[in-house]
Amino acid sequence: MWPFSSKNGDERRERGHLRAPAAPAEVNIPGSWAQPSTHADEPDTDLAADIDETLQTVTLQRQRLGLHPVLRIPLIGAISFFAGFGLGSAHGSTTAALRYRAENAHRPPTSRTGWYLYGKSRNYHAIIGGVTEGVKNGGRYAAWTTLFLAIEDGLDRARGKVFASRQDREEGKLARGQRDFLNTVSAAVAFSGLYGWKHGFDRWSAQRMTRSAVRFAVPYGLAQDALASLRGDRPWYVDWVMGRTVGRHEVEQAI
After folding, report:
1. Which residue of 78, 192, 233, 250 has the fewest C-beta atoms within 10 A of its own C-beta?
2. CA geometry: angle at 74 spanning 71 and 80, to 5°?
């Protein structure tokens, strides 16, 4: 018989001379007729990362100055601290130097060595007084600035929850376009009231401070609205004006 017939092959396989043919390996060939990959059920991590990054970018675009409050408030507070530290240290060093001169006016130095030690001691008192007053003044600036920004962010969140749809409210989302200059002005008025109450201002001083706060808050809030509009997150009144303008233009073209 033919040596590779089924009968002889089975006999030789039983004796160990022949081995069963191995199963062909799966080959992934590109194309619509290719076999599906064994990793088809695994989630696409790159796509998920891109989606998360896009959502984070959109969320940051809807924040004031493009910064999340967790980062924006400490950053502006730190800037206020350094600004207050510079002003306070300049005033504190001058005051400390003048105080030292007044305290030692009755015993002026009489020798070159005495004048050298007098100047050195005065500079030491000026540095200590400048650093001390700078830290105090910077801390006050940072605290009041943080309070103003916290009130502004609280008003933004409150209005966002009030004007959000029911579905967005259940999902924890806020309504768009509610971060505008009105919240900034309201926060400035509340801030001025708390500041006047803390320092015991009278009626006329409190009114003058409130007017100054409003004069500062209106351009500051409008500048933030302009930046938000450039980023694509327009406030509600900008959308309202644009909608009325576009609608009127379409009606005029239809006529």
Report:
1. 250
2. 135
Look at the block and give the residue holding tokens 């507070």: 77
Q: Could you read off the pLDDT of 124-157 as tens digits, one per residue? A: 999 999 999 999 999 999 999 999 999 999 999 9
Contacting residues for 149 by C-beta, under 8 A, at least 6 apart: 69, 72, 73, 76, 77
Q: Which stretch of 14-28, 91-105, 194-208 has the lowest confidence by average pLDDT?
A: 14-28
pTM greater than 0.85: no
What is the CA 97 to chain-centroid distance, rounded?
41
8 Å CB contact between 174 and 161? yes
Distance, in Å, from the CA atom of 199 to the CA atom of 209, rounded to the nearest integer, reads 12
Contacts of 225 (CB under 8 A, 6+ apart): 180, 181, 235, 238
State the Cα–Cα distance between residues 61 and 54, nearest whole angstrom: 11
What CA–CA distance (Å, rounded) separates 126 from 133? 10
Q: Which of 127, 153, 145, 152 is nearest to 83 (CA)?
A: 145
186 vs 188: CA distance, rounded Å: 5
Structural contact between residues 131 and 51, judged by C-beta atoms closer than 8 angstroms: no
235 contacts 179 by C-beta, under 8 angstroms:
yes
Residue that has been written with the tokens 């450039």 in this structure: 230
**DSSP state string for 130-168:** HHHHHHHHHHHHHHHHHHHHHHHHHHHHHHHHHSS-HHH
The residue whose two tokens read 């967005």 is 168
Residue carrying the six token digits 């008192």? 125
User: Using CA atoms, how far apart are residues 99 and 115, in angstroms rounded to an integer?
Assistant: 17
